[in-house]
Specification:
The protein has helices at about 40-50, 125-135; strands at about 20-25, 55, 60-70, 80-90, 95-105, 110. With about 140 residues, the protein is α+β, with helices and mostly antiparallel strands. The longest helix is centred in the C-terminal third of the chain and has 12 residues, at about 125-135.
């Protein structure tokens, strides 16, 4: 007859000690497939909802910002993942010209859609500030 164990068949690490929290916009599965290049602003709003923030310099840009944190008991929460989904519109006809999904990869802002690192001089100033400020990095 086997001896009873302290875990009683349950996971050995208590789940109450580590918590994960998702904040901001969470992209629904297949949502980006519903807004191809050329879509209207109204279609983007219907599919993705209200953006976290909007930029109107050199055409409209909708930013959908999300952040995932992990906290171990009483320690300061650690940022596990952060994303900025940017939808760019033509200033004249308000149609989608480009979609980018920015995040941090190896400490550098990275576009997961085009798989490129934006060069300086583009819209990186606002994205870089958002990502670097929340990660506690100096620009």
């Amino acid at each position: 007859m086997p001896l009873p164990t302290a875990s009683l068949g349950l996971a050995r690490s208590p789940t109450g000690f580590v918590t994960e929290q998702q904040r901001g916009y969470v992209t629904a599965q297949g949502a980006l497939d519903q807004i191809p290049i050329g879509s209207s602003q109204e279609q983007v709003l219907l599919v993705l909802g209200t953006p976290s923030t909007v930029a109107t310099v050199d055409g409209d840009v909708f930013y959908y910002i999300s952040q995932k944190t992990r906290k171990v008991m009483f320690l300061k929460p650690e940022i596990v993942d952060q994303r900025v989904l940017a939808v760019y519109f033509d200033p004249k006809d308000k149609r989608v010209t480009r979609i980018a999904d920015y995040g941090m990869k190896d400490g550098v802002v990275f576009d997961f859609v085009s798989r490129t690192t934006p060069t300086s001089g583009q819209e990186l100033s606002i994205l870089g500030q958002l990502l670097q400020a929340s990660l506690g990095m100096n620009p």
